[in-house]
Specification:
Blueprint lengths: L3 E14 L2 E14 L3 E5 L6 H9 L6 E10 L2 E2 L5 H7 L4 E4 L3 H4 L6 H12 L4 H14 L16 H13 L5 E5 L7 H18 L2 E6 L2 H7 L2 E6 L2 E7 H6 L4 H9 L49 E4 L2 E3 L7 H8 L2 H5 L3
Helix pairs in contact: 4-5, 6-7, 10-11
Length: about 350
């Protein structure tokens, strides 16, 4: 088994809204092994991006890490002084944003923006930075002659490659990619994912890939962390989690997305309803109001995570019945019936 690079334990992140506060992340725990891609997946509002932002400690003004640990190379990022945390950003932990156009300054060339990272954060001189810029562009498949172009002169896919180059500039150990292909067409999505995988393997870095699309996780990730309403519903090796899901939410997500491996047939079945309002979440299992398999205990007792296979766990009272539930979950009528 690979050595663990990042270990998140019982992470809680709170937001203050007016006179109220709520936990957007409520006790999330997962590991990121060295040299692996971990997919953080779930619907919008499930806490994925909040976790990603908490890992860099670059969050909204009204957000606070209210509990837990984030152990990175043995150091707790939660307790780290800001000066030490700032030294880790970009050098050891880098971030690829969802919208590359919004992350690139439109009035400066791409080379100028890369140079800022390489010279100010990396301590390189002008010649070293120039060589590194060319290396990075070649690495992400862009002709180095385009370094002096402005962001608006690149296509959406190429801008995302520039964002990847920026993230890799100082050879970080961990790259966090927040919905890096959401705004791109499916052909470019696959190109970017293939390139991200190739770079991850070549450089030996770890990647946390935040996405709402479970087919992207199936295509590129080694491990899967499924989040729902601020909590981890299920996690484990990608193949085990997606082919033998033990939480009804993961089963529902599988039904709602096409097979990226090429299956053209099959009916996509949505999960009726929406994640709960976290200002006043339901008692018990937070998925229970939408779950076709909910029983009485689900609506009153919050489930503990049950290990269903080595390294594969699900926070569901009925995880032990998963083989039977999976058969029913594959039927469209199961999800169309009132829970």
């Amino acid at each position: 088994m690979n050595e663990t690079l990042l270990s998140v334990r019982d992470l809680k992140v709170s937001y203050k809204v007016g006179h109220m506060s709520f936990e957007a992340v409520d006790g999330a725990s997962f590991d990121v092994p060295r040299g692996s891609i971990v997919g953080l997946v779930g619907e919008s509002g499930c806490g994925k991006t909040t976790v990603a932002r908490a890992l860099t400690r670059v969050m909204a003004d009204n957000a606070t890490i209210s509990g837990g640990q984030m152990l990175f190379g043995g150091r707790d990022l939660v307790a780290l002084p800001e000066r030490e945390m700032n030294a880790l950003r970009w050098r050891d932990i880098a971030f690829i944003p969802q919208s590359a156009m919004n992350s690139l300054d439109p009035v400066y060339t791409v080379e100028y923006q890369l140079n800022e990272v390489l010279r100010r954060r990396g301590g390189m001189d002008r010649a070293q930075a120039r060589r590194r810029c060319e290396e990075l562009f070649e690495m992400v498949g862009i002709e180095p002659g385009r370094l002096r172009d402005f962001p608006h002169q690149f296509s959406g896919g190429m801008r995302q490659r520039v964002a990847i180059a920026l993230a890799l500039a100082l050879n970080p150990k961990l790259v966090i990619a927040d919905e890096p292909v959401t705004a791109l067409d499916v052909i470019v999505q696959r190109q970017i994912l293939d390139q991200l995988r190739e770079l991850q393997q070549r450089l030996g870095i770890s990647v946390i890939l935040v996405t709402h699309d479970i087919s992207v996780v199936a295509y590129i990730c080694d491990r899967t962390v499924v989040m729902y309403a601020g909590r981890v519903a299920e996690q484990g090796p990608m193949e085990a989690t997606l082919t033998r899901p033990s939480h009804p939410y993961t089963m529902g997500l599988r039904n709602a997305f096409p097979d990226l491996q090429g299956a053209a047939s099959g009916v996509l079945t949505p999960i009726d309803g929406a994640p709960p309002n976290l200002i006043d979440p339901p008692p018990g299992c937070r998925f229970a109001p939408r779950c076709p398999f909910a029983i009485e205990i689900c609506t009153s007792v919050s489930p503990e995570t049950i290990e269903v296979e080595p390294g594969h766990g699900a926070a569901c009272h009925r995880a032990g019945e998963a083989p039977v539930l999976r058969k029913h979950a594959a039927l469209t009528e199961t999800w169309m019936a009132e829970a």
